[in-house]
Amino acid sequence: MSLDAKIPEGPLDQKWIKYRSTIPLVNPANKRNLEVIVVGSGLAGSSAAATLAEMGYKVKVFCFQDSARRAHSIAAQGGINAAKNYQNDGDSVYRLFYDTIKGGDYRAREANVYRLADVSTSIIDQCVAQGVPFAREYGGMLSNRSFGGTQVQRTFYAAGQTGQQLLLGAYSAMMRQVGLNKIQMFSRHEMLDVVMIDGKCRGIIARDLVSGKIERHFGHAVLLCTGGYGNVFYLSTNAMGSNVTASWKAYKRGAYFGNPCFTQIHPTCIPVSGDHQSKLTLMSESLRNDGRIWVPKKQNDERKPTDIPEDERDYYLERRYPAFGNLVPRDVASRAAKERCDAGYGVGKSKMAVYLDFADSINRLGKNVIKERYGNLFEMYEKITGEDPYSTPMRIYPAVHYTMGGLWVDYNLMTTIPGLYALGEANFSDHGANRLGASALMQGLADGYFVIPYTIGAYLADEIRTKSISTDHPAFAAAEEEVTKRLQSFLSINGTQTVESFHKRLGKIMWDKCGMARSEEGLKEAIQQIRTLRQEFYTNIRVPGSAFEYNPELEKAGRVADFIELGELMCIDALQRGESCGGHFREEHQTEDGEALRHDNKYMYVSAWEFKGVEHDPALHKEELNYEVIKPSQRNYK
Amino acid sequence: MKITLKVWRQKNSKEKGQFETYSLNSVSEDMSFLEMFDVLNEQLIREGKDPVAFDHDCREGICGMCSMYINGRAHGPMQGTTTCQLHMRHFNDGDTIVVEPWRAEPFPVIKDLVVNRSAFDRIIASGGYVSVNTGNAQDANSLPIAKHIADEAFAAAACIGCGACVAACKNSSAMLFVSAKVSQLSMLPQGKPERESRVVAMVKKMDEEGFGNCTNTGACEAECPKEISVMNIARLNREYIRAALASEEDV
Predict the structure, then answer these.
(1) In whole angstroms, what is the distance from residue A167 CA to residue A485 CA?
(2) Spatial separation of the C-alpha atoms in residues A52 and A61, rounded to whole Å
(3) CATH number for domain B3-111, candidates 3.10.20.30, 3.40.630.10, 3.40.50.10490, 1.10.1040.10
């Protein structure tokens, strides 16, 4: 199958406007008979569900949490970008578009990113109208702040809880439709397969997590809004339940997976404190405005940080990148921290941490100013570590945070399976090889509020004659049987190791060999190790209980099994991409001073992988990226 | 540290539950309370026993999913802290800790420490929104909102919907939860058109779901991990009376 991104003709700034006006419409009477399934209730899922229901479609929403409001979008701290130019500082749709393409190290699709920047302004309008309490100035106007990778103030925020407020806005819009009986909500349900009939996606198989009952649900179209797969690394800033299962089932049914190796490692997270560690917590990147990052000049220095004199400290970011100093982009800062720790200069009990020191800023500005700017973050740090960052430097280390890769989608957000869409972090489309801060919220809501409601018409307009298909159809029965068998197989292994222990082992392989730095040798080893791990998993896990009750261990088994397969695909992708770009750093491809080296002549494409069987290598399809407006260049921060 | 746990075990909503006692010998003070349960569950699975079911997701204090009643207090002993952000350094070697689910009739137990809080979703669906369809909005800055109003609305909107207020209340009242949403939307100009109908509908739904009344004890505020102010309940009462008595609209 050839990859057709279906990018509309015309000049970049006219593509979306013109296309939007020519997409076929579905009349209101027909909309009532068209059923749409939305899986996942984060920003993308709840905004899409609310909007589609407002338009008149029959919508079903599924989430694995006890309430739609728990989706992990809720944890986003910093803000949401929009090209409003309220600060009169020269911002524009074009500048937001340009910053996003450049931040993504020239591996994103121009047309999608331009559309994203274009609709960004409507998102802010919509959220404010819903009652989202964004931060404001004394005159009553909306406040903005700066974020990494930009020179304008375009980030809207609600203290350090922007994701929470945006999600509660979208959730309330969705719950309004639930109250009006336009949406049927299925919480504590997990999608375990997509159902294909005559080459089209026609529904899903879901498990009621409380009763264990397997359910069949028909839909004329299915939207996967199921987030990213950072938990393949075991430790990440993702929620415990975040998983790849929905995307993975789609992949195994024929949806291509785009750029799976593009993952974002965030430089400022609280380091691992021991084997018991279950997840990592982010400390907002804004801290790097006033904190200085350093390690001791002596290896394995056991002294307290406050006892190490100034001339025995190595402010390595300021040393290596005098122009940007502590404010280099996320990927650069992360790699530099790893380099120091690997060389034996790390600090703390584990030696896998560096200092983020506020002493200079506190001397210069006073403790109160620092408290005003970062008080809640300092408090969170103290809660977790028991240390007071006002008197001793924070210890930080990079952690997996976001996945730019995801299901390959065309301009309409449709995967390679007709009728199956992917929105938000679950798709690959807008961030290239590295995402800028405050752009994830923007993309989730753009896809849900302002893109899919239009583009789904291109497909559903041809479906008005398709009556609801009975879930007695053999395709539903067959998919259900497969799901049931798989669950039973996990339960019947009855080995000696917990699912959790396999997840930890997978995470270690991924972090060591497919994390911040990757090499041909390491990736080849990782692929072998993951294959061995997979075999051991299917012969030695122990899952207690039964399939017909509330059984979190059984849920976990399915998710970890999918992560193991995904991990292998990520390594294959990372091995195939013989260049460094954004978050993907191949040790063989760096400049003399250790910076990422892109090879535009060879790798200016999206890698879209097709599933060929668990025991077979996947097939690579390439979507060439044509930069018509922006000229790619090497990033330089020195 | 050595910790003894007395944990509520209940197979499902129909069967009776009881406390079981477990000993953990090497609890690190850097562990979170939930990570201690991870360790316990690993141990139980290896012993061929049923692990303890508990709700959790983000583990950074914002999703509102974790919900343990620890030594008689919702989310445990620390002020303004969810269970997932509670760390073992606040306990002592040799402590016995009693852990129960939220106990309130509108939150039936699903299993062990997991309860069903969908009543909260139904209350929001009854009116906890502004009726504005996608595409209806005007330019965001065409509606100036004074900073102190925006800040106060935000403080109310910071509720994470965990249900600690209900669990802490002797009447199982959901007034703090309901009032936080009513306050946020009644203060903001966007929420004014539905100000009366919203408060009446949400209170009606709250009563239907079986939540009790408020008797001004203030346990909800004391135990709220986001420190939502009980002043919101006062505002809810005013809004309700205003809607019921003074509204020109039939509510």
Answers:
(1) 36
(2) 11
(3) 3.10.20.30
Rounded to a whole number of angstroms, the distance from the CA of B48 to the nearest CA of chain A is 7
* Least CB–CB distance from A74: residue in B35, B62, B136: B62
pLDDT tens digits for range A451-486: 999 999 999 999 999 999 999 999 999 999 999 999
Percent of chain A with pLDDT over 70: 99
Residues B109-144: b if buried by 16+ CB within 10 A, e if exposed: bbbbbbbbbbbbbbbbbbbbbbbbbbeebeebbebe
> Residue A478 sits in a domain of what CATH number?
1.20.58.100
**Three-class secondary structure of residue A337 per DSSP:** helix
Using the predicted structure, report yes or no on whether residue B120 has a pLDDT greater than 70. Answer: yes
Range of the domain at A335: 267-401
Residue written as token pair 């001004």:
B216
The alpha carbon of residue A395 is apart from the nearest alpha carbon of chain B, in Å, by 14
ipTM field = 0.98
Q: Is A330 a catalytic residue?
A: yes
- Non-local CB neighbours of A29 within 8 Å, separated by 6+ positions: none
Condensed to tens digits (0 to 9), the pLDDT of residues A353-401 reads: 999 999 999 999 999 988 877 887 898 899 899 999 999 999 999 999 9
> Would you identify the CATH topology of the domain B117-246?
Fumarate Reductase Iron-sulfur Protein; Chain B, domain 2 (1.10.1060)
- Phi, psi (degrees; rounded to nearest 5) at A92: -160, 170
